Amino acid sequence: MKLIEKILEELLKKSVEKIYPEIEIKNPIVQRTANENFGDFQTNFAMINAKNLKKSPRIIAQEIIDNIPENEIIEKIDIAGPGFINIYVKNEFLVSYLSKIEKEDPDFSFIEDKGTVVIDYSSPNIAKPMHIGHLRSTVIGDSIKRIYKYLGYDVIGDNHLGDWGTQFGKLIVAYRLWLDKENYEKDPIGEMERIYVKFEKESENNPDLLEEARQELKKLQDGDPKNRKLWQEFIDLSLREYNKIYKRMDIEFDTYYGESHYHNIMPEIVKMLLEKGIATYSEGAVVVFFDEKENLPPAIIQKKDGAFLYATSDLACIKFRRETYHPNRILYVTDERQQTHFKQVFNIARKLGWDDNYQHIWFGLMRFADGVFSTRKGNVIKLEELLNKAVEKARAIIEEKNPNLTEEEKNEIAEVIGIGAVKYADLSQNRISHIIFDWDKMLAFDGNTAPYLLYTYARIQSLKRKAKDNGYTLENAELIINEKLERKLGLLLTQLPIVVMRAAEDYKPNLIADYLFELAQTYNSFYNNLPVLKEEEKILKSRLLLSHLAGEVLRKGLDLLGIKVVDKM
Hints:
- The chain is α/β, with parallel strands linked by helices and 569 residues long.
- Helix content is 53%, strand content 11%.
- It has helices at residues 4-19, 45-48, 50-53, 57-66, 91-98, 135-150, 166-178, 181-186, 188-203, 207-221, 225-248, 266-275, 310-325, 339-351, 383-401, 407-427, 439-442, 450-469, 484-493, 496-506, 510-529, 537-560; strands at residues 31-32, 41-43, 74-80, 84-89, 116-120, 154-158, 280-282, 285-288, 299-302, 329-335, 357-363, 366-368, 371-372, 435-436.
- The strands form four sheets. A four-stranded antiparallel β-sheet has the order 1-2-4-3. A four-stranded parallel β-sheet has the order 6-5-10-11, with helices on both faces.
- It is flat and about 80 Å long.
- The mean pLDDT is 94.
- It catalyses: tRNA(Arg) + L-arginine + ATP = L-arginyl-tRNA(Arg) + AMP + diphosphate.
């Protein structure tokens, strides 16, 4: 189904081509108006082309209006301000359009650069528990994956695990010195965290521990069987715990390629960079220097002791992804602290002739009021703990508001609402903003929150159940739009596809959250002001159908944020 904006743009384009057949002009862009007093849709085409066409914007606008082809779509079209063209669509057209939104998928064939998108997100470090510092990358990356799939891209979601590097030398030493086997069997990842933190504290006063860790790491990298076996054990146990959390959060990955997967490619990267003159030796290390225009610090590719760095690993990763997936773009969802790193990596990749579309989708940090999280300092809140507390709070509210539900229903609903609240609290904010961690704010159940949206969806399902109990279903229901609130809600229901496109362009799921909040507010205003079940059958079924469509759009939008819905609350 064509987007309503595209249908209107085609009409305007025909008018423009008729008036200016020999002048090359960009196609008109139509968007929903911010103020319903200025039409349903609007374009500023006349204003942005006034200089090129050497005419007043209002004259251009009038010429376009005078030459709009005959159609069954536009009720009225007028000019506002310096040259905005305001478009009002016919109720009959809106009714016809709304009747298709549940049956037909949006047509995104006009998007020209479709292909495979690789999204690199979540990326926990093996042998450390997932904590709320991992939340942002995980939920933002998952939502972007869902958004691009909705638009018709082939999407590969990769969990780039931290399964290689200096921490494993430390962990192997700590394992052999301080492991509590009983705790390790009960809570392996918790025990690994405990001994890792202990190593960091002990090594501050005992430098010999750091040297021992370096030796164990070297043995691991050289393929020592004992260290390799222990390292694989750390990975397997960690993934088992991570996957419990991912399953609970309804998050899936296509691949789990960690840094170790690219280890054998890294020597080739160093060789390529040296042969092409992109890197050079400096004090025994292999380094890429950037010129003044690039304004980047030197990137060390290989230390003088032969060790590789993150830049080497990420370049090897790009090489693998290009050759394996031939991607349209590669997206990296990490926090803002890695901006310089990725600028270096992308710059080097382009010097190698890898002119793909690389994007660092960075986000602001989640902090305590007095600083950032640190596993080394042991001041983190585990992600599992956060989810449990959210579900516990949701369960208490459900118990208070709807005690007649069965225990199984209460538990299932609490799980959906609690986890939805955590996700939405993050995704509803601009990703580049910092978030100060606050339990009450994170788990709020009023205002612009997931519970409010889920309550709206559940209200619609309850309305449908009550209608059915009274003998009314959606069978043979026909939309009738007479009231202002019906029209406002109907127009808003057409907007999900265009909102998703904008969210994809800016990699900002919060645009979808903003839309869903507006939709929920508009629906609740409709529900509170226009009776449904007390109307005569024709109006009753029409408003019931409009309610049903609002519920379906809410469900689809929430799914794009990775949030499930419930029929009761």
